[in-house]
Each structure stands twice: as C-alpha cells, then as structure tokens.
Amino acid sequence: MSGSDLPWLVVIDPQRIFADPSSPWCAHDFGAVVGPIGRLSERFGDRVLVTRWLPGSEHPGAWADYFDRWSFADRPDDDPCFDLVDAARGWSRRPGLDLTTFGKWGPRLAGITGPTPHLVLVGVATDCCVISTALAAADAGA
Description:
By secondary structure, the protein is an alpha/beta fold. The protein has one domain (3-140): Rossmann fold (3-Layer(aba) Sandwich), CATH 3.40.50.850. The protein has helices at residues 16-19, 30-44, 62-69, 107-113, 126-140; strands spanning 8-12, 48-53, 97-99, 119-123.
C-alpha cells in the first residue's frame, strides 16, 4: 500500500456518557472494547481520529423531539459527561473531531482523511453512530 492507501482508524464517540453505568445511554460492554481499541490505535499510529458526539445548543426539526425524549443529554457541550473516557485520550495524536450529528462522515472528516479513504470504524453504538458514519462514507466513495 502506498501512504495514501493506508487505512484510517476512526474511533467513534468513546465518551463517558456511553461508559457510565448510571447513564441511560450506557453501553454495558463498553469496558470490553477499551483494550482492543487501544491496541488498534497503536497499530494505526498517526492515522487515528477520535470523535465525540455533542448535543449543541440548537435542536432543529426532529432533534427537538429527540431531546424531549432524551432530556438528560441536553446539556452544555462542555459537560463532563461528554468527555472522552480516560483511555481514549491517548489513542490519537490528532485533535478530536466534535460533531452534533450521529454520523461523523462529512467535510471535516473527509478533509483529514481525503475524500475516498480506506476507513476502519470502531465504537460502542454500532447501531447508531458507527453505522450512520459507515453508510454516509460508503455513499461518498470511502
């Protein structure tokens, strides 16, 4: 593989809100993926990106209903529940990518990885944030 063909590891939303057993969004097996993701991040070197989901301050359209349903998550973006878990802080040498969308594929991620990269996606909310990232990236040619 040439340097431009090397894959990128995108670690999607390894945040306290998904790791904390008291959170309604707790992924109960979160702890089981921390070690494997850490080992993967070592293998990908400087081609690792870590994302965070943030609620943002505006909730247009269906997001208003979403935050009515999940009001506990309607907090300021700097609330500690949105912090990365401690282990994730060392996974990437790059600044994190914070977005108010479930899917992380878009201009900001493509600007880092290139428009049609080889991506390896990992995370704990496979049925939401990971798959929405994968589908949008695939549709764009990644």
